[in-house]
Amino acid sequence: MLVFIMTISTDSFAVDLRFAAELINFNYEETDISGNTLNQEAGFIPGITIAAAYPYQRINNTVELSVFDGQVDYTGRTQVGQSHETTTDTSIYRLQYKLSWFPLSTKNALYGKIYWQQWDRDIQPANGVLGLFERYQWWTIEAGVQFPFIKNEAQNFLIELGMLTTFNSTILIDLSDVGFGDPTLDLGNDIGFSGELKYEFRQARNSSLQFGVQLKSWGFGRSNSKTLSNGNTTITITEPDSTTIQTTISACYIHHF
């Protein structure tokens, strides 16, 4: 999910507050070293975003907090290769800072973002198969450009395109129910892309409405391996390669101070 607050006001000092309702079309896939699918998760996850933006001259600083929570469908296989279907309780938390720069000679803009995310993935037990809780945490750096189709005092319609990379990515796996504790693995970093269309129009002197649709994709590389023992059995765990594709639609209210 990409959030951008457009300040229509020409005042030299202003603060914008943004309150958004959003819906993610969530798609996640894990693959083995040959590229074969191990499991997939798909579904819609609702959420909210609260953000504040402070423009100064031709720079816009934005801080935002997003929370998403819902349930998606899980399709995969057990350790012995048996087909398995269940659901996954999914919670996503994101804290982000964004800096946008508007050069004097153009209406286009350049931006850079850094954000931290946490994904709580609670695969539910079903059909005699135990559930599994995993917690992913990672940082992302993103940079890109913004091209407005329309930009005036009454409305803004734009496209935003960016590239991103993950770093400091980890996964905690809760195996305490079977005596192996809750080990943490280091995930491989990978690149991704983001593209978004946004339309904002002034509703009143101090407020605007904004609607957007965004597509974002990124991945994690195969993790390191750890060997664990519960006193009776020894196992080795590794997190496989994965790809995430998220399409987000948003509707928000922006108040200009």
What are the key terms here?
257 residues; mainly beta; Lipocalin; ten-stranded antiparallel β-barrel; elongated; disordered N terminus
Q: In summary, what is this structure?
A:
The protein is mostly beta strands. Helix content is 0%, strand content 72%.
What does this structure look like?
This protein has one domain (16-256): OPCA outer membrane adhesin/invasin (Lipocalin, Beta Barrel), CATH 2.40.128.100. Helices cover 0% and strands 72% of the residues. It is built from no helices and 13 strands. The chain has a 10-stranded antiparallel barrel. A two-stranded antiparallel ribbon has the order 11-12. A hairpin with a 4-residue loop joins strand 11 and strand 12. It is elongated and about 70 Å long. The model is unreliable at 1-12 (pLDDT under 50).
